[in-house]
Design the sequence.
């Protein structure tokens, strides 16, 4: 076994989001089958969307394709929307490792203090040059997975309720439902702040929308390492991350590590295999060993388990090797993802390397480990929310927060349809998300 540091982790990282998907065999949770509809019915559904600022914004966001790496147009839409609502917007240009000329932004926005009255700030001029120090950041991502699926509306035949309207298309759930609901939430809170009926201070709130969550988390990592973040985070009490959680509060999500294994053999005629060296035969024992690590007890060398997160799991997600049945293969490679219920990235790395080492005593394989992160615990100390553990990865570990800053993960719609052909959620899901985000913000502010 030989560790290869020269291999970039970008390829491993690019398969991260694919590995993050749950199986799409949970059809029981999929929406009811939809019937073909008439033009009148289509107009009817469209009217429901147009009459709601939340649903119109959501539609506008979904109608702009923003597959990771191509987030510029949707970013422009988000910026113009926020500026039209008197937000002060800062954009961060985030480099794309796969395309040096690509242009896209993280978007950080705070209510413009000169436009939103604040009874809390007696001398606004005093801190004119110091950026606002929000207590709560609401954050979600503006990129989606491929392929683009156009926005569409439908309604179960048995229903006449606007709440039952199903909104489908790429990003309707993951993550533009969260983007639209978080913007609407802050607008609602600001309007109550302006009316004086609540003690919300506009400068306590900020919005953060990042790129590349679905590939390598580079948008959130960029923000986390930026002077902008350092300059605004001194009062931070909570970050509310938006990802589909079926309207529940996630109590945590598993960690992840990945392994990329390469075998170099020697080609020969299959009738004379002793003249070659099969790369497939070299790599198979290592893959079998890794495949068992999730089922093996930790005391016997298996992956960690925990009460909160259950068992760690293994997915031998990609393998290739050889060129034909009658040729001894000279090359083979595989990629394996580990969803972690415990342990640290370093301890998991040792465990993986140990298992491969036993299967490859001569050290012939090349191995590159993407260490990733351990399980991510999240806060759930808000009454009235159900909680759930989720198995997918998020940007939460990519944002460094100070000790004591709460991290909530909440969003409308189900991860079981996000990324699928049938991605969609109901009007009811969307509207409830705004109510729930408001409750989370108020809780975080102690109101
Ligand atoms: Zn997402």
Sequence:
């Amino acid at each position: 076994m030989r560790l290869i540091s020269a291999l970039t982790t970008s390829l491993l990282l690019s398969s991260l989001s694919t590995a993050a998907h749950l199986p799409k065999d949970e059809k029981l949770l999929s929406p009811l089958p939809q019937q073909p509809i008439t033009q009148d019915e289509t107009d009817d559904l469209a009217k429901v969307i147009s009459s709601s600022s939340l649903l119109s914004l959501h539609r506008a966001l979904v109608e702009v394709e923003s597959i990771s790496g191509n987030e510029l147009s949707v970013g422009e839409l988000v910026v113009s929307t926020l500026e039209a609502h008197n937000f002060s917007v800062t954009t961060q240009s985030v480099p794309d490792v796969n395309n040096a000329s690509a242009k896209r932004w993280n978007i950080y926005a705070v209510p413009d203090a000169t436009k939103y009255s604040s009874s809390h700030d007696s001398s606004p001029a005093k801190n004119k040059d110091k950026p606002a120090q929000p207590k709560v950041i609401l954050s979600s991502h503006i990129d989606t997975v491929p392929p683009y699926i156009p926005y569409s509306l439908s309604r179960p035949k048995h229903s006449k309720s606007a709440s039952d309207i199903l909104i489908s298309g790429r990003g309707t759930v993951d993550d533009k439902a969260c983007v639209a609901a978080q913007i609407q939430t802050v607008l609602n809170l600001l309007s109550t702040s302006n009316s004086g009926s609540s003690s919300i201070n506009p400068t306590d709130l900020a919005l953060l929308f990042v790129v590349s969550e679905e590939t390598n988390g580079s948008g959130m990592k960029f923000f986390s390492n930026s002077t902008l973040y350092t300059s605004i985070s001194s009062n931070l009490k909570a970050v509310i991350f938006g990802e589909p959680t079926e309207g529940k509060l996630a109590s945590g999500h598993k960690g992840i590590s990945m392994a990329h294994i390469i075998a170099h053999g020697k080609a020969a005629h299959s009738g004379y295999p002793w003249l070659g060296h099969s790369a497939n035969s070299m790599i198979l024992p290592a893959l079998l060993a890794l495949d068992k690590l999730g089922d093996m007890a930790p005391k016997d060398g298996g992956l960690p388990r925990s009460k909160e997160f259950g068992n760690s799991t293994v997915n031998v997600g990609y393998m290739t090797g050889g060129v034909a049945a009658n040729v001894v293969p000279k090359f083979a490679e595989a990629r394996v993802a580990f969803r972690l219920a415990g342990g640290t990235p370093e301890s998991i790395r040792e465990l993986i390397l140990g298992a491969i080492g036993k299967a490859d005593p001569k050290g012939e394989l090349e191995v590159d480990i993407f260490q990733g992160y351990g399980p991510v615990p999240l806060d759930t100390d808000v009454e009235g929310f159900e909680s759930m553990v989720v198995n997918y990865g998020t940007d939460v570990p990519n944002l460094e927060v100070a000790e004591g800053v709460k991290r909530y993960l909440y969003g409308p719609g189900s991860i079981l349809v996000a990324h699928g052909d049938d991605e969609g959620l109901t009007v009811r899901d969307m509207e409830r998300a705004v109510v729930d985000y408001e409750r989370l913000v108020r809780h975080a502010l102690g109101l």
Summary: The domain at 255-373 is CATH 3.30.70.360 (Alpha-Beta Plaits). The first strand starts at residue 2 and ends at 3. Residues 141, 174-175, 213, 243 surround zinc ion (CB under 6 Å).
